Amino acid sequence: MINELKKLGFTNNEINVYSAILDLGQSSTGPIIKKTGLHRNIVYDVLDTLVKRKLLSESIKSGKKYFKIKNPQILILKAQEQLEASNKLAGYIKNKLKSKAPEVIIYEGKEGWETAYRLLKNRLKAKETVCTLGVGGDKWISAMGDFFITWENFLVKHKIMNKMIAYKWQKKEIEAHQKNPMRKTKYLPEPYSISSNTEIFKDGIFIQIYSDPIILIEIRSKEIAKGYQQHFDVMWKLSKY
After folding, report:
1. Which of 55, 56, 100, 238 has its CA 20 to 30 A from that of 141?
2. Which residues cross the membrane (predicted)?
3. What is the CATH number of the domain that holds 207?
4. β-bridge mates for residue 129, sequence order
5. Phi then psi for 21, rounded to 5 degrees?
6. Residue 50's domain is classified under what CATH number?
7. How many other β-carbons are positioned within 10 Å of the β-carbon of residue 21?
């Protein structure tokens, strides 16, 4: 029983007093002090604590206080309260850690690429905006595979705007697929080749690498997404239709 009481948060003195009363039954302070061998002040303090924790009941007979163990069901209720408090605390700590440490997930190949977009599709809400910096063009469409049409229809259905910044040499290539009314594209004059691009959304980013196999790196972090969004907004102002 001692180990169980310790697990419930009882101190050694509380265990001694509680066990003594359990053996004695209803008792005044004198027999409890004698049985525990503890100083009377310690016993008085412990009895007061156990009464406040509703583990003991007290009554007065002939001017003398008597103590007895309350229904042991209270121990179960106390344990349940501790469990609930622990779960809430664990959830709070977990959320705090999440907010500080970004989650990084790496997807490989077309199957992985599609999985990333399916998960994003479940998180995006109607009328949100997805921003693309450094458009992959035909490489991106090839990576999307059969899921390309599903993604396009999803953007239209939920009125999710896709703002893209590409390079001027890509204009003809992009406009060949530019049938989505929810997509706006602006161009920069630099003649760079595309080996990767970045998708920015509310709670994270995709870094998309057109290697063999293709790789998509997802970083889930509102703080990081905010930083990339600020950079995108500056580039958007410098770009032209």
Report:
1. 238
2. none
3. 3.30.870.10
4. 161
5. -65, -35
6. 1.10.10.10
7. 23
